[in-house]
Design goal:
The protein is mainly beta. It has helices at 2-19, 187-190; strands at 22-24, 28-32, 34-38, 52-59, 65-73, 79-83, 92-96, 102-104, 109-115, 124-131, 138-140, 144-147, 152-154, 171-174, 201-203, 212-215. A five-stranded mixed β-sheet has the order 1-3-10-5-8, with no helix packed on it. Strands 2-4-9-6-7 form a five-stranded mixed β-sheet, with no helix packed on it. It has a two-stranded parallel sheet with strand order 11-13. The longest helix is centred in the first third of the chain and has 18 residues, at 2-19. It starts with a helix and ends with a strand. Residues 1-18 have low confidence and may be disordered.
Length: 216
Amino acid sequence: MKKIISTLFLLLFLGFAADAQTYTMSTSTVTTCSGTFYDSGGAAGNYSNNENSTMTFTSGNGNRLSFNFSTLFMSLGDYMIIYDGPTTSYPIIGAYDTNPGVINSTGTSLTFFFFSTSSSTSTGWDATISCTTAPLAIYNLTSGTVTACSGAFYDNAGAAANYTDNLNITQTFCSGTTDRLQFSFLQSLQSSNLALGDTLFIYDGATTSAPLLSVH
């Protein structure tokens, strides 16, 4: 009996080890809900000089992706850009040369672009991959009122395209509860990706007669 139990334990252990996936940075696409994401040097090596690669991860179960970075060390001039979607046309979550912590997608995909110079390298990064909750509801700018307490808000063209000319739109968001609303703009919007002369006004209330919070 002891021998049989030991054999079963060994088989289960080997099966668990086989399921642990590792992914190293390369120009490729991956569908997964688990594993570890490394730079091109893998778990123990440095990444290389002159890298220029784009890698897209898509959720394996239709939920949001989460990347929990344990480390990220880069040489001067090297950086990673993370996009909130399946291509580099989608909004930029951020550009990083130090540990970004936990990165979550709003939908089912994240895209990573990595660039390294020719001068020197470093140990790179490792991140644990998981799938979390259902994708956020999408709200593209349009006239009217929306009642929501969560979601992703884009201009009228959506996440991956430019807004159109000659817009004059007022959209109101209400929580529908006694809770306050909070909008956390991605870095790409904080740096104001608006054409010269175009303006986004944000008011603290249900109409444009409410106090003006900010102008972008």
